[in-house]
């Protein structure tokens, strides 16, 4: 195996594992807070990544895409956390908060990795592996958070939009859910998702992280 690929996997492994694990656990945790214990009973409110990893979506698809696109693009997913929305005390608004919890966890993680990056620089840690990992942590979480906010079910953004729309429009959007994954993949293949959604919003995310971290940077540097 190419040594550069091994290095890339090593750098991204921890950020990706944390990103998907905390993302899925956040869904289950908020669902439990709002009245549904389904994920908790099934052991999905857990920091154990093995409970969330989907062999195809988390391992096979990203590796295949890495080789097919020569590392230019990777996409994957974890096992969805089961939520019985009817059990939520307020199904409509509860579903919004449950859906939003996943991307929110990623944006928080992006900030945490950013703080780590600043601290590494402040303490003059020049080991490239750790600085690359911190940078990867910011990037992975921004991409995962923004991607999941795309307003199409079954992505989290689609569920947020369904909660915000009037009932008739929400039901119409819900009918797209069986085709949502294929629509997203088509947008990925054509480049539309990256050009019009991921790139602009991830850039905004980087700018926001930088703005928030400036006080920390002035303290450490």
Task: Walk me through this protein's architecture.
It comes from Caballeronia arationis. It is found in: Cell membrane. GO terms for molecular function: metal ion binding; metallopeptidase activity. The structure is a single chain. The chain has one domain. The longest helix is centred in the middle third of the chain and has 32 residues. 73% of the residues lie in helices and 0% in strands. α4 runs antiparallel to α5 and α4 crosses α6. The chain is mainly alpha-helical and 221 residues long.
Terminal-residue CA separation: 39 Å
Rg on CA atoms, Å: 18 Å
Average pLDDT: 90
**Structural class, from secondary structure content?**
mainly alpha
Sum up the overall morphology in one term.
globular
- Largest sheet composition: none
């Amino acid at each position: 195996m190419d040594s550069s690929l091994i290095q890339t996997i090593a750098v991204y492994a921890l950020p990706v594992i944390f990103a998907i694990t905390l993302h899925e656990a956040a869904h289950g945790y908020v669902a439990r807070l709002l009245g549904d214990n389904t994920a908790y009973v099934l052991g999905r409110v857990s920091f154990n990544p093995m409970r969330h990893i989907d062999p195809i979506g988390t391992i096979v698809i990203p590796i295949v895409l890495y080789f097919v696109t020569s590392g230019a693009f990777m996409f994957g997913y974890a096992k969805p956390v089961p939520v019985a929305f009817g059990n939520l005390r307020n199904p409509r608004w509860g579903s919004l908060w449950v859906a939003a919890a996943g991307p929110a966890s990623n944006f928080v993680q992006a900030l945490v990795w950013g703080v780590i990056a600043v601290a590494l620089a402040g303490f003059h840690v020049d080991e490239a592996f750790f600085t690359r990992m911190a940078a990867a942590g910011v990037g992975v979480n921004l991409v995962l958070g923004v991607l999941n906010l795309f307003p199409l079910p079954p992505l989290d953004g689609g569920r947020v939009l369904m909660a915000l729309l009037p009932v008739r429009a929400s039901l119409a959007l819900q009918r797209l859910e069986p085709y949502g994954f294929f629509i997203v993949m088509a947008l990925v293949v054509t480049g539309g998702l990256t050009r019009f959604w991921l790139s602009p919003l991830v850039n905004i995310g980087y700018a926001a992280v930088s703005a928030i971290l400036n006080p920390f940077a002035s303290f450490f540097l």
